């Protein structure tokens, strides 16, 4: 953000000039409380489509032209944090796609598991189904065992005199046990 000045017609808005790597600076009106000169920010330019099918268009906000939008994490669908625009490090490259910079350009699969599919209640079951549906080999995650960190034990004493373990034997009336 090369310049950031108070909007002449609104107390809570700022008029900015932003370098997005093109041949000219973009005029963008912003209402974020952390908007200030010198920030490296995430910018949605005209023609960009944000989550929720929100299309960025050229507009006038309170009489000032705006050629894009300075984005918060919530506006990009990354998190619920909408307290202000994203403040990138000073060494963030200008003009780089924010998805590449934050390593967010990933595939997402939305699933809805029904109660009869208990095999899909864990990541390995879901991975197995997705692999089969896409005719891909299953790549199971490496699971590193975590050692116990609690040294305490709980003593158990069975004081009942007539306690027997539960057992089950097949009955001769069961189809598997009938003698022919």
Automatic annotation (TrEMBL):
<feature type="domain" description="TRNA-binding">
    <location>
        <begin position="1"/>
        <end position="99"/>
    </location>
</feature>
<dbReference type="InterPro" id="IPR033714">
    <property type="entry name" value="tRNA_bind_bactPheRS"/>
</dbReference>
<protein>
    <recommendedName>
        <fullName>Phenylalanine--tRNA ligase beta subunit</fullName>
        <ecNumber>6.1.1.20</ecNumber>
    </recommendedName>
</protein>
<dbReference type="Pfam" id="PF01588">
    <property type="entry name" value="tRNA_bind"/>
</dbReference>
<keyword id="KW-0694">RNA-binding</keyword>
<dbReference type="InterPro" id="IPR002547">
    <property type="entry name" value="tRNA-bd_dom"/>
</dbReference>
<dbReference type="GO" id="GO:0000049">
    <property type="term" value="F:tRNA binding"/>
</dbReference>
<dbReference type="GO" id="GO:0004826">
    <property type="term" value="F:phenylalanine-tRNA ligase activity"/>
</dbReference>
<comment type="subunit">
    <text>Tetramer of two alpha and two beta subunits.</text>
</comment>
<comment type="similarity">
    <text>Belongs to the phenylalanyl-tRNA synthetase beta subunit family. Type 1 subfamily.</text>
</comment>
<keyword id="KW-0820">tRNA-binding</keyword>
<dbReference type="InterPro" id="IPR012340">
    <property type="entry name" value="NA-bd_OB-fold"/>
</dbReference>
